Here is the input.
Amino acid sequence: MSAKLPDGWTYFQSAPGSQEPSRWYATPPYSASVFALREKYGASRSSDPAWNLAHTVDAPTWTKLCAEAAEQVALHQSLMERES
Here is the structure.
């Protein structure tokens, strides 16, 4: 695994099923604030970027999972800048 998840993220890989391949999942360290940020900035406007903040991301490969997590970190940081 050459790609790395951002600091503090936890992850796991699901077991493959008879019809489905395994998938990678990751949760950010700020997952408790995801719903609060969504509600504050995007509850009534699904077009607001806050609506795209995920509690958990998933992907078919480790590399794609790391890329998804990096996008979420950038989005979270931009939302936190609104706070200041």
